[in-house]
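So, could you explain the following?
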Amino acid sequence: MKYLIIILSILPIVLIGIFYYKRDTVKEPTKLLRKLFLSGIASGLLVGFNSLIIITLFPSFKDTASLSVLNLFIYTFLAVALIEELFKWIMVYFISYKSPHYDQFYDIILYAVFVGLGFACFENLLYTIPNNDLFVTLFRGITAIPAHASYQTIMGYYLTLSKYYPQKKKLYIRLSIIVPVILHGLYDFFLYLNNFIFVIIFLIFIVLLFVFTILKTNQVLNIDIKNLKK
């Protein structure tokens, strides 16, 4: 069972990475993508360190089931979503935003997704191996891992707008952090509420998140196609 859990934990990450890579019309250097993936793992380690500090300072956050709705909101949006997305954003921005290989609209979406997948790989193995639970592994494979790819797709979408529309650069830079934090926070908030109604809301949210991600990715790819025709 343990080896099956490990395989199922990594397989969605590989499939999503291949999917995004194949959509790139001009392939990016694999060395750069490996670096971004590893930086995602590094961001996971940094988030883990910061989480220990937060739990030490706020012991009540250890038991999310006992938190009030307000405290749960604060925990999911500030202690989880903000910290995770900020560390991932730092990796994307400082490694790839000024890269000479970044010459198409889609490129930084691909870069950001590889950071997100590196983070998701670290986080997923951290959850699934100790639990050794097939249901948890499958559930995370169809929700949490694609969700991380979605957050980073949206992050990359706004970063590419900031690069190619400099008159609104500051706005788009801010949105590249704010929007993923909101989406990530909502994901965790609905999930932690652990109520039948919110389970339904969570599932609807997941579907809408994935549809939104696909639409934004297609929008960027269409811009690239138009540029290539000129």
In short: The mean pLDDT is 93. The chain has one domain: 2-21+28-229. Residues 2-21+28-229 form one domain.
